[in-house]
Design goal:
heterodimer, A: about 500 residues, alpha/beta, Rossmann fold, 2 domains, 6-stranded mixed beta sheet, 17 helices, globular, B: about 350 residues, mainly alpha, two-stranded antiparallel sheet, 15 helices, about 75% helix, about 0% strand
Amino acid sequence: MSQGRSPILELNQITKAFGGVEALRGVDFALYAGEIHGLVGENGAGKSTLMKIIAGVHPEFSGRFMLDGKETRFRSTRDAHAAGIAMVHQELSVAPDLTVAENVFLGNQPTNRLGLVQWRRMARDAGEQLGRFGIDVDPMSRLGDLPIGLQQLIEIARVLFSGARIVILDEPTSALSPPEVERLFATLRRLRDEGTGIVFISHFIEDILRVSDTVTVFRNGRKVAETAAAETTKGALIEAMIGRGGDALEHSYTDDLQLAPSNGGRVVLKVDQLSLGRSLRDVSFEARSGEVLGIYGFMGCGQQELSRILFGKLRPDGGTIVVDGRARKLRSTAAARRAGVALVPESRRDMLFHQEPVYKNISISVLERISALLLKPARERAIAMRQVEQLQIRPPVVGLDLGMLSGGNQQKVALAKWLTYPPRLLVLCEPTRGMDVGAKNDVINIVRDLRAKGLAIIVLSTEPETVLSLADRILVLKRGAVVREFANEAVSKDRLLEAA
Amino acid sequence: MASSDSATAPAPRLRGFGAFLRSQMRNIAPFLTLIVLSAFFAIASPSFATLDNVGNILTQVSVTGIIAVGLTFVILCAEIDLSVASIANVTGIAVAYFTLQESYVNIANVPMPGWAAILLALALCALLGLVNALGLTVIGIPSFIMTLAMMQIAAGISALLVRGQIAYKVPPLISTLGSGAIGGVPWIVIVAAVMLLGGHLVLTYTRFGRYIYMVGGNREAAEFSGLNVKLILGSVMVISAVCSGIGGMLGVAHFGSAQQNEFDTYLLDSIAAVVVGGTSLFGGRGGIGNTIVGLFVLGVLNNGLDHVNIDSFLKILIRGLILLAALIINVYAQRLRERTTD
């Protein structure tokens, strides 16, 4: 449909490296007016990097950047903005303390001749714009008081109605409910028909297929396919994203993996009808002793909230949690620890003390057991040393400040901290993220050891490989609900992605 | 091979003497300041470096020292208590209020036995600390604002108790500890030393002390470690109020009177002692040892400026400048430390 016209935006042979790591390698990309262009690819495939180049976030790159047939270089996001390019980033970037109207007109408030803000006009215009988008809110209410999904819609609305000719949406639907997604799509189609060029990035391949005219697939920093959306299928796109034959060094999990039948272990955790706002809806499952339960889903699917609820950091709106046969309220992290739950969050920074020595980081969870009042530093060091040896933490010096260790070793310390206080249930969020192959294997072996010792383990990850490499049983979480369980059957990366 | 590796590897950096100095800057800088100030005043004034004057300095910093013990706990948790001086004042007034005053003192006081007066005064300061604790942990009011309100509340209770009058009598025990001496050593110095030592032992050798450093070092991590962060924060607020109350009772005996606004300068002095000593305002670093050095820096400065002939109005400005310098070092030391370990 776009043949015969010249693109409004054309990129040739774009290459971009971050500190020696190439995020994009020789990518060509073209966007036409009146087109919705879908982008798909795994985490780190280069989609977001390319879009940030277009939006002027990354001014340094090599390759040719043509806007309306003229070679252009943006030095900043301001330049991109002036050229009519607007982007909705993956992370919500709104000002929660300002009103809805101020957010809609952020940096662009209507003023009178004296330079004073025209509040009444701003409120009226904001109300009209949001109304066109099907959002009915008081423009003078504080944005932070609205639900997250609505905040995201308002941010999208701001960008869509900013008059930009090129609009980039990076994962805009992750926090939206199905009717909100419908409204967004209707608006995108209308803007397209009015001649706007739209780039739409999403993990939800059904969404991409429904709304896009053209789809481009990225893998490992390269563009591997470009096709009309009407001429492809979800299966074909997933295959292009993952790639057959595997250029990765590791196990690529493209082939079927047979999950073992249940070991019949004792039920350690039973979660029933757990719900939390828009993040979790009626989530029910069990975790058994001697079993690793994998929970897979895209960013924003509710994994993080689920892990925080299990560790007493968030209180659910409804539902019950039974640990070892006893119903638990889990009012605080201290209560969760006493109930036998341990959590290793995705960010090591959040759970370790970087300015304290390794042994204090490890012993903190057992302090209550080994010392009633006075500390026993020699005992603490001995306990820590045993863990350091078992987990092969390098360097094996328990007096060293934690901040001096490498990321992989810090992650091992995070595990060691809970192994000195053997919990009944260990919840691991993204246990191997950002680790090299060797460290990953170490962590995988540690988790298998713990399983053999009879712990119930839950691994939550947005990376299919992580879940596939560790789990005996897999739940797929999608927009806050469990949509599929894989148990005692064959599973592969394709099937996981298909289910999510 | 080895040399090219060590140049490029992002592995743990080797810590040379320079790195050690940088990481210890918060401990070294206050100590150097103390030595330089002492040397300066010793040379500038013959009456400064005498045994008598050392005794004076010790006595002068005692009340501040007692208050600073609790405040050290609070600041180590990365919180602040602005109500310490007001709570000291109201506790001192309360202990006098419950003691029989001379007939010329025009206060409707409620005389009680000495032990009862002391217990009631202690209960009052503990209660005010508990209100601080609940405001901070249960309601979630930032400590800066919560204790600002408490500063007014405590001052208000003081005003209602004395109604602009001055009380003189306190229970005999308080009177002895505040203004008596044993073997030439003032009791108030001994009390301050014992409390400082006690605070140091708690912070260094007990589980509670470890938890305070952990909560101050990384509150998020403390919570993810399953510590009861709110209980720890609440406890330090109560400890701070009780230390202030003891300082207030002994202070009243030391000064010989109990009246409104008597302790106003002690808020700045006690915060200054903790921070000048090098305890991090961001929490998790420092301790009673730092507070002691800070106390002496302030004590030497206040006392020394009286020994050299200096405009007494200029003293205030000089103290302000010294505090600013200490704050700059405090923030700077934190940055250096983060750069070496992170």
